[in-house]
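Q: Sequence in, structure out?
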Amino acid sequence: MKITYTGRHIELSPVQAEKLEAEFRKVGKLLDNGWGEAEARVVFSHNKHLNHAEVTVPYHSHELVGEASDGDLFSALHEAVKKLEAQAIRVKTKWRDGKRMPKTDPGEPREGQAS
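A: Exactly. Output:
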């Protein structure tokens, strides 16, 4: 998964970046559709006593967004990734379980319909 970090008034250490990349691997596996790598944009900022984290991943025709705030930057990023993972699972489930009917001729009745 390709990850782009943007920090406002703050930066990630290399150790924290490695830990986040490990967390994004699972989300990347969920969202990778075989056409190439999934892409994530991470924006984090520090306001007064709170650290805000926002993770955005474009997926098909819409974006999945995970947002969280916490006193600790890494905890906020971890929570945002967990929210994003839950959204990814929900979207994949909806896509997989959608009803799909075979194409029929307009003159033929569908299964379950009376002629």
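The two ends are 52 Å apart (CA to CA).
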